[in-house]
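Practice problem 4.
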């Protein structure tokens, strides 16, 4: 009976992990509303040398029906990507529906911003933007890779596993990088607290010395000493 319970718990744990992984994949796809020239930015933590692919599609609000319809050709979407060092690694104007790609050159938080151009098609309406961001091996179209390189099913599976191992290695390196940054920040904070305590002690000693000297001068002036 105990073995059966343990087996059920393991099965539930596996189902839970699979559910969480699938949920994380779904969270990459979203939609949002923007007005004319309004900027929307998203922050993604990305390891270095990692491929990122974003697919988007714009829909224009229809005041008559209250819904959204395919956007007009005059509407464009500007995509801007900033790396953790503040450097712009992608800044380009695309059409109302498209795909953008970039490869990270430094680990950390990348800021991905999208905003539309000014167009006569807006007329005060809003845009609904569907955005799907894929990172790492999830950004690779393996069907296209297999067709282009003429890979068998087994070779394609091996290729996927190798890419997954490489991505896991990058994630581990990124976690080590974050731990190192956190350790440096903690040490810097501790050092500042130490020097602040030393400065406070020095100020208190100086004030005590000044008060004693002032009291001594006061007593001498009153001829009490």
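Answer key:
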């Amino acid at each position: 009976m105990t073995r059966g319970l343990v087996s059920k718990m393991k099965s539930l744990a596996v189902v839970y992990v699979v559910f969480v992984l699938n949920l994380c994949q779904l969270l990459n796809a979203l939609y949002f509303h923007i007005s004319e020239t309004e900027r929307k930015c998203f922050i993604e933590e990305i390891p270095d040398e990692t491929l990122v692919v974003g697919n988007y599609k714009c829909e224009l609000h229809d005041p008559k029906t209250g819904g959204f319809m395919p956007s007009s050709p005059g509407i464009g979407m500007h995509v801007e990507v900033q790396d953790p060092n503040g450097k712009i690694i992608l800044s380009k104007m695309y059409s109302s529906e498209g795909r953008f790609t970039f490869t990270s050159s430094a680990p950390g938080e990348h800021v991905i911003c999208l905003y539309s151009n000014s167009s006569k098609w807006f007329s005060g309406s809003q845009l609904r933007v569907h955005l799907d961001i894929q990172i790492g091996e999830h950004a690779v179209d393996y069907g296209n890779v297999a067709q282009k390189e003429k890979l068998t099913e087994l070779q394609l599976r091996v290729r996927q596993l190798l890419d997954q191992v490489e991505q896991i290695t990058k994630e581990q390196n990124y976690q080590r990088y974050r731990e190192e940054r956190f350790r440096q920040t903690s040490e810097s904070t501790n050092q500042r607290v130490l020097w602040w305590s030393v400065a406070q002690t020095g100020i208190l000693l100086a004030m005590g010395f000044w008060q004693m000297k002032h009291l001594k001068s006061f007593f001498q002036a009153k001829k009490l000493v």
